[in-house]
Amino acid sequence: MDYTCVKNTIQVHNVASLDLAQTLDCGQCFRWVQNDDGSFSGIAYGRQITVKKEGKDLFLYPVTEEEFHSLWKGYFDLELDYGVIRRRLSNIHPVLKEAAKYASGIRILRQEPFETLCTFIISQNNNIKRIKGIVSRLCEAFGKEIGEGNFAFPTAEAMAALTVEDLQPIRAGFRHRYLIDCAQKVHSGTVDLSVCYAAPYEEARAELMKIVGVGTKVADCVLLYGFHRVESFPLDVWMKKAMTVLFPELVPADFGPYAGIAQQYIFHYSRMHPGLFG
DNA sequence: ACCCAGGAAATTC
DNA sequence: GAATTTCATGGG
Fold first, then answer.
1. pLDDT of A146-172, one tens digit each?
2. Cis amide leading into A62 (omega within 30)
3. How far is the CA of A35 from the C1' of C12 (A)?
């Protein structure tokens, strides 16, 4: 990876297959906002940064060189060759080839596991705009302040001490008790998130599904976006429609070891072409 | 008023 | 066991 570091800014050269708008606004994360100049500002792992694409180069600031290596290059998955994966996926099915081309700037982020768990618990029977609002209120109410008006995602420990009534201000409705159960089980170790990185897929999924409010779809999303299990293939309402209409002859297993990346291509392509489904 | 939103739990058949 | 209903909240 070729990059330069000047003061507090990292400039990564020739970043292929990364479109910030596609990646940060495709429904895998909920804490990034686009600025007037086209850059995006967001918070992850308790740090607030701005990222911008200029030509083929990616700028990140404020970021130290150490933080870039220990955190952000992994967060934006800069070491995985998406061009190779896209070509492999394109051979599976002509419609997947079309979707992969259309959504070619999407990358799978490495988000904080506990945050990913909470945000996808919140996502159930909900829409992306409202999810962002709930997550924002959750952080402001219970997260640690990191600089001016920016808040880290709350820790499991902090949330485990809360009651359903305490969560009322975030207005997540019936999901409040799910969030409390999640925080308590993660904090106590009843749910051991560390096993989810490498355990056999079904085992990792079962670990997450110990939490009330975490079913197959939420677990699959958390494994994909929080643990970088790129074989995961979450089936939400859009993907179920896409499988029926666009890939009637295929089953999820046909998408192979990078099914999760295929899933993002198909999800984005489908959402941007609702007419395909009547 | 009605319907839907990156679902899952609770209830009913 | 498989199908249906319910669960808060907000926007179209």
1. 998 999 999 999 999 999 999 999 999
2. yes
3. 26
